[in-house]
């Protein structure tokens, strides 16, 4: 009986395995799919290959309208739609490429870690929508004797393919090409392609990235023709001598021969051209095809890499600063010397090495000013256009970035072409993330092939791009034998780039190793995030979101001998990215801190309209998607429509390649440092401007600023003599500009700047306002003059009315304010409601203890003392002048044991007729005390709306620091001017604080009949280490700690 039971169990298991769906079998990942290969196109002539334009190649785009059918369940999918005579006329049209959720089919899902289905790999235990596509095409006549390959740039997440009613194959892996040779199935005339795409498959367990989960044929579809004898693939390396002077050009071609073609006398020829299209080689490199095809592999040692090789004397080197590209043209000729095909690629001579804990490119220690980039379009989701990619690269270069991590999957090939051309270092990351099950899959042998396939295909496709300086094995997938196997393959196949994988942490063979789940590790080693080092197969020590202390501890660790790099840091969620200066001050101190990658590039908001037609950006949960992670997809430094956010301006300044420091400003002496790694400064224009407050007095060019890379020099600006005006500030502005058009910017583009306050100042002369000021004391205190009246509430000590020429200025009283609408870092991160909630209602809790009216210098002075128990004491002294000027002196004493404040200031509301805004302070963009290095003190003017920056999830916004004065006026130029006795922090909103705090989307913010005005001494910084823990709090120097504060400002009538 026992034997019978065991037999029954075995039979059930056997049947379940062999009845397993293809898309729920981790060992079945493709069928009839061609191996990965470098991106290239077959050309009929060498000249066309030299030109390199795709439209000249043997290529046909199948982008455009396809017939489309959608079902919500895999069981409902059409089963015979691929047949030749199937009538699809009733089906809808679908644009390819696209994500079907963006076209009204199914639901987009945003989730960070949690899988969109129950985690039970490899099974999909939820509804699995299916999209079926049909497209017909005719082949060009000139392709009749060619092999035809059907190329899908990217399909999420798995698909079956039929051509002319015959099954071709199957593929999964959403972010890399799937190519199928369909030659034998094609006919003259019309041909039919049928594709059936499943939203989820076992491969979805390897695609648990923090982004929108969308489906469909989301990258381009191409038909590629090539001859029966073709250069199917090739790998190019540049190997420098020890002096990094001369280099070997090494080429390893792969020839595909079909139909037993006789290739006697056939040869491969290589030519190299520079950017002027001049030949570099004295004669082409040649090799017979038979030598390539019949290559012998030795029993011992490795097969030599190069089949074609040539020494190149003093080639121009490629780097992110000097992206010089050659063009390599490879041609096949037959035994009659006739051209069979030609292919080409752009080629950069560059060397990457890790040495003595530093990262070297072309022998120079470099820093990676990097950002993580997801594919995203506000209307199309995961489908991005070439224009999107180009705009991203333009902005990345314009804002002084030099590196991108392709988080967390390979990008479209066009992206790498632009990185080669524009000059951007790329960390190319495999489409492997298993965050929802952590490291489980890396430790299951049956998943090895799936992981290795994704890594290999990425490397094979992108191996010839000089911009790719690093391979990354994926993201947040734990560590185990499967990643180790992938690492070993990569390092053996391509030792010319450094290998990265943040999940590879802790080397069990090290004597100080502690298991990550041990109490000793948690208590002892977390302070420096090292354990104490990582597996030998990674070339850099990579971490996520280290604090400044942790990063410095790692830099000084005696155990870490490799470069250290935060692959993610500076979490830019909402109003964030504080303390970038402090991170980069630290990074510049240590050679082994090689830079890092901000999280991340673009807010992944999806443009929607509400019932009234008002546009807003949607995020997780807005589509009824479950599970979801809300607005955690909004971490970008550009908006979903690719406009710079204020934080991006800070990056540009922090990353700028030229630094200015004051030496002796009385004489105009400055030190200029060149942080370029490869370029001297002689090719740039240095300009200077002398300014009085916001007015330009004189400007000029600083000549002969020629500084070698990583060097500095002292220079004297030829400041003219000028008369110092009473109460005026004088500024020296220095800037650096391009002198030629760049592919990413026009001539004259500013790449660096600095502004110095000159030590010339003359105290202003204050004229006493003439006239009488009257005091009327009753239930309320009224202070009045000829053209003004101010009313104070004796119960609160607040100014509740401010009349100028009998017109009310105030809509809401002038009240103390210690709180701000919560930023994402405040709310999600350090939980300010819990930590500092005392201060949210502190203004309402203040009780007036003293209310005194006195006179000083003939002016009424009202002194109000308010307290909260014995914890907080606030003294406000108001003084009044005959012209209606009100001066407020503000002294706060708070028990130091109380939590930090979010702001120390004052708030009121005025009529929205005062819509014109001008200020003299740091701008023009929004800035905060820990994110204001890029902002410049100047005079700025516009409407209140011009100075707003609205975050997709409303929160504290639109602040300006170091403000000397703020003016708000109406169309008749009447209003008020706020003058600080010291620099102020100010903002003006067309909403209340409560509206900003409670709204979840911008369409919920309705502009009011008033403006909220915040006049602060200071505000706590926005923070920016992360957005989910206490580390989200601003660093200590930027916290408004409970204690003593004093400040003063004046309300001055305008006209």
From TrEMBL:
UniProt-listed PANTHER family: BETA-GALACTOSIDASE
Protein family (similarity comment): Belongs to the glycosyl hydrolase 2 family.
Mind listing the GO biological process terms from this record?
lactose catabolic process
List the keywords (alphabetical).
Calcium, Glycosidase, Hydrolase, Signal
GO MF annotation, one: beta-galactosidase activity
Q: Which SMART domains match?
A: Bgal_small_N (SM01038)
Q: What PROSITE patterns does the annotation carry?
A: GLYCOSYL_HYDROL_F2_1 (PS00719), GLYCOSYL_HYDROL_F2_2 (PS00608)
CC cofactor? Ca(2+); Na(+)
Q: Which residues form the Beta galactosidase small chain/ domain?
A: 782-1052
Complexes and interactors? Monomer.
EC numbers on record: 3.2.1.23
Signal peptide bounds: 1-19
Q: Which InterPro entries match?
A: B-gal_small/dom_5, Bact_Beta-galactosidase, Beta-gal/glucu_dom_sf, Gal_mutarotase_sf_dom, Galactose-bd-like_sf, GH, GH-type_carb-bd, Glyco_hydro_2
Q: What are the record's GO terms for cellular component?
A: beta-galactosidase complex
Superkingdom of this protein's organism: Bacteria
Listed name of the protein? Beta-galactosidase
Gene source species: Sunxiuqinia elliptica
Q: Which reaction does it catalyse?
A: Hydrolysis of terminal non-reducing beta-D-galactose residues in beta-D-galactosides
């Amino acid at each position: 009986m026992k034997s019978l039971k065991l037999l029954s169990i075995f039979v059930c298991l056997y049947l379940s395995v062999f009845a397993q769906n293809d898309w729920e079998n981790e060992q079945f990942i493709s069928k009839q799919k061609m191996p990965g290969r470098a991106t290239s196109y077959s050309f009929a002539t060498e000249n066309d290959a030299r030109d390199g334009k795709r439209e000249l190649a043997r290529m046909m785009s199948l982008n455009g309208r396809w017939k489309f059918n959608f079902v919500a369940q895999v069981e409902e999918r059409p089963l015979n739609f691929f047949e030749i005579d199937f009538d699809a006329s009733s089906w809808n049209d679908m644009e390819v490429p696209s994500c079907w959720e963006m076209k009204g089919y199914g639901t987009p899902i945003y989730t960070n870690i949690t899988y969109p289905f129950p985690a039970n790999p490899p099974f999909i235990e939820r509804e699995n929508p299916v999209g079926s596509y049909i497209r017909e095409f005719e082949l060009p006549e000139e392709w009749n004797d060619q092999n035809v390959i059907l190329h899908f740039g990217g399909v999420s997440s798995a698909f079956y393919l039929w051509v002319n009613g015959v099954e071709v194959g199957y593929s999964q892996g959403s972010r890399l090409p799937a190519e199928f040779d369909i030659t034998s199935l094609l006919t003259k005339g019309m041909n039919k392609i049928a594709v059936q795409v499943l939203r989820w498959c076992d491969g979805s367990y390897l695609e648990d990235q923090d982004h929108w989960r969308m489906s469909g044929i989301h990258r381009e579809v191409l038909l590629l023709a090539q001859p029966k004898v073709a250069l199917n693939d090739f790998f190019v390396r540049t190997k420098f001598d020890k002096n990094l002077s001369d280099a070997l050009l090494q080429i390893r071609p792969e020839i595909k021969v079909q139909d037993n073609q006789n290739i006697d006398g056939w040869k491969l020829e290589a030519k190299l051209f520079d950017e002027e299209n001049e030949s570099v080689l004295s004669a082409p490199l040649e090799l017979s095809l038979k030598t390539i095809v019949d290559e012998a592999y030795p029993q011992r040692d490795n097969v030599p890499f190069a089949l074609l090789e040539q020494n190149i004397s003093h080639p121009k080197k490629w780097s992110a600063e000097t992206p010089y590209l050659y063009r390599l043209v490879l041609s096949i000729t037959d035994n009659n010397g006739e051209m069979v095909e030609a292919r080409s690629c752009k080629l950069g001579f560059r060397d990457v090495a890790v040495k003595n804990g530093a990262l070297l490119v072309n022998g120079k220690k470099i820093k990676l000013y990097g950002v993580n980039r997801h594919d995203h379009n506000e209307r199309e989701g995961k489908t991005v256009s070439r224009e999107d990619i180009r705009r991203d690269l333009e902005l990345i270069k314009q804002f002084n970035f030099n590196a991108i991590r392709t988080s967390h999957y390979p990008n479209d090939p066009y992206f790498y072409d632009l990185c080669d051309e524009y000059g951007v270092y790329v960390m190319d990351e495999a489409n492997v993330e298993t965050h929802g099950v952590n490291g489980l899959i890396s430790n299951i042998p049956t998943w090895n092939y799936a992981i290795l396939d994704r890594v290999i295909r990425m490397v094979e496709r992108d191996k010839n791009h000089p911009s790719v300086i690093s391979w990354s094995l994926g993201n947040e997938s734990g560590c185990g034998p499967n990643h180790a196997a992938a690492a070993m393959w990569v390092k053996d196949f391509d030792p010319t780039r450094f290998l990265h994988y943040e999940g590879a942490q802790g080397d069990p063979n090290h004597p100080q190793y502690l298991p990550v789940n041990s109490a000793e590790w948690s208590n002892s080693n977390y302070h420096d995030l090292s354990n104490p080092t990582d597996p030998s197969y990674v070339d850099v020590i990579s971490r996520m979101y280290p604090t400044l202390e942790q990063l410095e501890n790692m830099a000084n660790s005696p155990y870490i001998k490799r470069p250290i790099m935060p692959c993610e840091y500076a979490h830019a969620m909402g109003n964030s990215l504080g303390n970038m200066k402090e991170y980069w001050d630290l990074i510049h101190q240590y050679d082994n801190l090689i830079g890092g990658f901000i999280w991340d590039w673009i807010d992944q908001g999806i443009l929607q309209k509400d019932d009234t037609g008002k546009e807003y950006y949607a995020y997780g949960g807005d589509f009824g998607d479950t599970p979801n992670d809300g607005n955690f997809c909004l971490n970008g430094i550009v908006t979903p429509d690719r406009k710079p956010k204020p934080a991006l301006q800070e990056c540009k300044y922090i990353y700028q390649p030229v630094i200015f420091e004051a030496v002796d400003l009385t004489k105009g002496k400055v030190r200029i440092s060149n942080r370029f790694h490869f370029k001297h400064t002689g090719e740039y224009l240095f300009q200077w401007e002398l300014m009085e407050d916001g007015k330009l007095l004189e400007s000029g060019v600083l000549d002969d600023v020629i500084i070698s890379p990583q060097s500095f020099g002292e220079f004297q600006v030829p400041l003219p003599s000028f008369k110092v005006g009473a109460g005026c500030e004088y500024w020296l502005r220095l800037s650096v500009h391009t002198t030629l058009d760049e592919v990413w910017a026009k001539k004259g583009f500013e790449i660096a700047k600095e502004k110095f306050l000159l030590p010339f100042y003359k105290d202003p002369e204050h004229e006493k306002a003439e006239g009488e000021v009257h005091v009327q004391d009753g239930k309320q205190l009224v202070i009045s003059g000829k053209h003004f009246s101010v009313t104070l509430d004796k119960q609160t000590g607040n100014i509740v009315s401010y009349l100028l020429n009998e017109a009310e200025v105030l809509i809401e009283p002038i009240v103390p304010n210690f709180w701000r609408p919560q930023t994402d870092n405040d709310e999600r991160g350090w939980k300010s409601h819990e930590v500092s909630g005392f201060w949210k209602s502190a203004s309402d809790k203040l009780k007036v203890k003293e209310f005194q009216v006195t006179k000083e210098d003939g002016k009424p002075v009202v002194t109000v003392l308010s307290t909260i128990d014995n914890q907080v004491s606030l003294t406000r002294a108001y003084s009044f002048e005959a012209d209606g000027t009100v001066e407020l002196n503000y002294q706060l004493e708070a028990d130091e044991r109380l939590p930090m404040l979010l702001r120390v200031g004052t708030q009121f509301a005025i009529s929205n007729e005062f819509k014109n805004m001008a200020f003299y302070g740091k701008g023009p963009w929004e800035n905060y005390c820990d994110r204001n290095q890029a902002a410049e003190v100047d005079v700025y003017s516009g409407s209140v709306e011009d100075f707003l920056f609205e975050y997709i999830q409303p929160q504290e916004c639109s602040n300006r620091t170091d403000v000397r004065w703020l003016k708000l006026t109406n169309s008749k130029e009447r209003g008020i001017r706020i003058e600080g006795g010291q620099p102020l922090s100010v903002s003006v909103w067309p909403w209340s604080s409560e509206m900003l705090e409670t709204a979840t989307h911008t369409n919920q913010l309705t502009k009011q009949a008033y403006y909220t005005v915040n006049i602060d001494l200071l505000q706590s910084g926005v923070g920016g280490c992360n957005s989910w823990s206490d580390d989200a709090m601003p660093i200590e120097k930027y916290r408004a700690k409970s204690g003593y504060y004093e400040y003063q400002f004046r309300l001055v009538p305008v006209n």
